[in-house]
Amino acid sequence: MFLVLRDCHGLVQVIIPQDESAASVKKILCEAPLESVVRISGAVISRPPGQENPKMPTGEIEIKVKTAELLNSCKKLPFEIKDFVKKTEALRLQYRYLDLRSVQMQYNLRLRSQMVMKMREYLCNLHGFVDVETPTLFKRTPGGAREFLVPSREPGKFYSLPQSPQQFKQLLMVGGLDRYFQVARCYRDEGSRPDRQPEFTQIDIEMSFVDQTGIQSLIEGLLQYSWPSDRDPVVIPFPSMTFAEALATYGTDKPDTRFGMKIIDISDVFRNTKSEFLQDALRKPQGTVKAMCVREGAKYLKRKDIESIRKCATDHFNQEVLPVFLKANSNWNSPAAKFIVEEQRLELTRIMETREEDMVLLTAGEHKKACSLLGKLRLECAHLLEGRGVVLRDPTCFSFLWVVDFPLFLPKEGNPRELESAHHPFTAPHPSDGHLLYTAPEKVRSQHYDLVLNGNEIGGGSIRIHDAELQGYILSTLLKEDATLLSHLLQALDYGAPPHGGIALGLDRLMCLVTGAPSIRDVIAFPKSFQGRDLMSNVPDSVPSEELKPYHIQVSWPTDSEAEKRKESFTPSRKLRVLSSVLHQC
Amino acid sequence: MFLVLRDCHGLVQVIIPQDESAASVKKILCEAPLESVVRISGAVISRPPGQENPKMPTGEIEIKVKTAELLNSCKKLPFEIKDFVKKTEALRLQYRYLDLRSVQMQYNLRLRSQMVMKMREYLCNLHGFVDVETPTLFKRTPGGAREFLVPSREPGKFYSLPQSPQQFKQLLMVGGLDRYFQVARCYRDEGSRPDRQPEFTQIDIEMSFVDQTGIQSLIEGLLQYSWPSDRDPVVIPFPSMTFAEALATYGTDKPDTRFGMKIIDISDVFRNTKSEFLQDALRKPQGTVKAMCVREGAKYLKRKDIESIRKCATDHFNQEVLPVFLKANSNWNSPAAKFIVEEQRLELTRIMETREEDMVLLTAGEHKKACSLLGKLRLECAHLLEGRGVVLRDPTCFSFLWVVDFPLFLPKEGNPRELESAHHPFTAPHPSDGHLLYTAPEKVRSQHYDLVLNGNEIGGGSIRIHDAELQGYILSTLLKEDATLLSHLLQALDYGAPPHGGIALGLDRLMCLVTGAPSIRDVIAFPKSFQGRDLMSNVPDSVPSEELKPYHIQVSWPTDSEAEKRKESFTPSRKLRVLSSVLHQC
């Protein structure tokens, strides 16, 4: 008779002797329900020859039990604690304390702790950073994404839970804490969005007397130092790409550079085309013809794949995409074939290095739109090909990339003649573009940089404005924001603020990629569901109106029709989308 | 011509050459206002013989400047950045980013970062603890102290900002994360209380399969390991004292053991007294006569000191205290002298080891009340004596003490026939007292322990209840709490929860004692004022009613009379006071 005992270090096999003297031990252990907590003592012995289990770290030994004590019994489980047992996420979240016992969750949370510890060693012990805690009961930021409110005991006065310690980290630079970091809890109320959490964690860093390269090498060293030792080491420096290049080549500001399938501008091939459709497209401002070669696409992609690709293009981009199949007979099988003459076909074959069995996706339109479309389809095709067994992206490969030279401003949604910050209003303009601020601000590039890993934005930062006058000009004149909400920061810059810059890494997303977890909820001990609910404790919850009184608030219950409307109308604001770099997602 | 340059490492003297070639450098540096940011290059040279400054780490060298650049200019300061310049705290908080430049604030924040880093090394690297982040958007706890509310987008539903990760740390133990720690942000809405912050930080620890001694040695090792190397090393183990002993000897549950002046029970001396006053006191339940000898009190304390001591006793304890002055003529000069016969006087002299020039404080009454009174007066006298130049408490001395065996329950305020938890409802009863739970619960001691440093509670913890049935009995039957708010925790205990226990150290208070700062606001980068306000950014702040709409709340503006009443009526609840261990403070 044997049983398997588990603790946080792993499993061990326990043998119950069959003699009479062990009767009470046997009774205790046999009657203890699965997942009960027992304390045993006994002798560690070798397993009998032939019964060793080489797959188990403790597979060569077993424990011959002498005493046993039932410390706590376990009632009937809602699911078995085995990784191969499938359970719905709702059930896992409801019984999170049981789900945490799984090998995978134990691994994820322990690795997260270890990796953050290595980051702290790197920053604090090796690079002289100071870990400073900043408040989370703060002031709302002007024009920012939605912030949770916290009613105070002063009637009509509220704190806000900040989305990041942005203002505090800059104020620390003014205060002479020249190298700041914090593993910072941040809050963002985005309503119901998959794979987002109302509270999340970022590795938050700010330095004085630093430039873009300085921050970048620091982060490269940080990731290399803290990377799990059982993975391929991180190779530094990371490659870098401008925003313009990323958009033109990958159709996104967060390219997945683990595979090629780049977007190619083939406008020149069609300069003298007789096709009116293409001529029309090329005549428009920033009109282009773009293509992307999907290797072996003609071989692997099915009719329904192509249909879904074309549907995605029209649904989300209101744009046509034309597939071209390069069949063995070297004929181009395509609705586009009729307006591609032989000379153009040869030129395209040369530029795009197409081969038999490839598929080309072709589109015409405004540069950014055409790129975004192909960028989206690039990921879609990769996904489809992988579904057909083609190896495109090595799961053990970690492909880091810096994306730089973002625009400083974007046209404001709803009023495109006004500007809004592409990232946030404290980002410094690119030194070469400073003069354009007063003549053509929409052309100014910023000193913002994003860190991308395998097609996911895992960090972003910038060199900040340290000149109060310039900051005031951008806030009031260009962005037309209410600068009074930031008067303390503007004033601080006036008292000898050093040049400074920083970055924030999204820890949840990073851990999700490092562990290969399917969702960020798998690297967080007690995550909220899609709807921002804690399913274990039923949160958020009603509060007796007595408890609202000290905060001078009352609930405004929506009418039935309002409640219905509310459900339908929630779409994330433009700024939210920009901040989250989901610009090109559909 | 010279100037002094400051960076985060310290100061250095810069010499400006007087020759023509340095004219532009000279202009830049001479015109830069105080506290401006400059970048200089130059040669490091020895100071001329006789001009070295041995008090300055860089006092042997200076920099002969070659180039200079003004990176940012500083406008007129509201106060000079010099530690000796006195400024009001309101001004310091308003310009916190300037105040942070002071030597003292730089030291406090950097030491805090270093000490926390050492604690992390100890827990994470040396003792296998896992750093787990727990949510701060959570559920309100039943009957707890006041918690901030966070309105959600679901009408009438709220999150609460938890006062500690108590429930999560226990759930992690159920989840098999057997050694948890977190530098946890906690929230407590205590309205306006001096030296408290609405958000604060605790070193939060929980372990499975541990007893009280296990947690205590862990914490002793933790403090020894992380203690600043320029202080006297921490001596372990720390002494331990029961709650009953602490109350009887020091009149408080957080004795300052840096000095003696203990409370002595002199009831036996007066068993056969003829004084009716004393007889009355001794006849009452738990009636006692107590005394405390203030060394050299007769020499140093003035008439007005004694008056203030007696006033404190009557004002806050509604109790008489009688001073006895031991003058050189060995006569007892006291209002108590008339009822102390010679034999009693000799006995008292022997028990209390009184000497000439001492003062004895004498009181009679119920044990706890008499002790609390003398405990308060003990600190008062120490303060007064130190004000007269007597050295009682060595400022470099750190006197740690464990206080153990607290009562599990206290009589409920307002309804003393019911019980409430002395600490929190998850505290396990003392193993020797388990049987009393069902017969005389008010007599049950708990497995709670407090860590006291120099008379301040810097930590507290307990072995927890891991049995769902016992937890349910205590919550529902004994405490009559709404257990549905904790159903998830009760359920979790039923699924094989291991025996577990933990502790939390108050980091702000600890750093305050380590740095010798006068207030916890001096070890926090951006603290709130007494009233919970951020004076720099003017928080909490009004919010446009439009921004309240998504959260389905509106402000209930108080009428003028309500507003007036509110100001007067706020007194912290009994539970608050118990939780904060200010039981005996007046």
From TrEMBL, chains A, B:
Aminoacyl-transfer RNA synthetases class-II family profile domain location is 109-540
Q: What Enzyme Commission number(s) does the record list for this chain?
A: 6.1.1.12
One biological process term from GO is: aspartyl-tRNA aminoacylation
Question: Which is an annotated GO molecular function term of this record?
Answer: aspartate-tRNA ligase activity
UniProt keyword Cell membrane present: no
Q: Which InterPro entries match?
A: Aa-tRNA-synt_II, aa-tRNA-synth_II, aa-tRNA-synth_II/BPL/LPL, Asp-tRNA-ligase_1, Asp-tRNA-ligase_1_N, Asp/Asn-tRNA-synth_IIb, AspRS_core, GAD-like_sf
**Which enzyme class, named as a word?**
ligase
User: Which locations, inside or outside the cell, does it occupy?
Assistant: Mitochondrion matrix; Mitochondrion membrane
Entry function: Catalyzes the attachment of aspartate to tRNA(Asp) in a two-step reaction: aspartate is first activated by ATP to form Asp-AMP and then transferred to the acceptor end of tRNA(Asp).
The name this protein carries in UniProt is Aspartate--tRNA ligase, mitochondrial
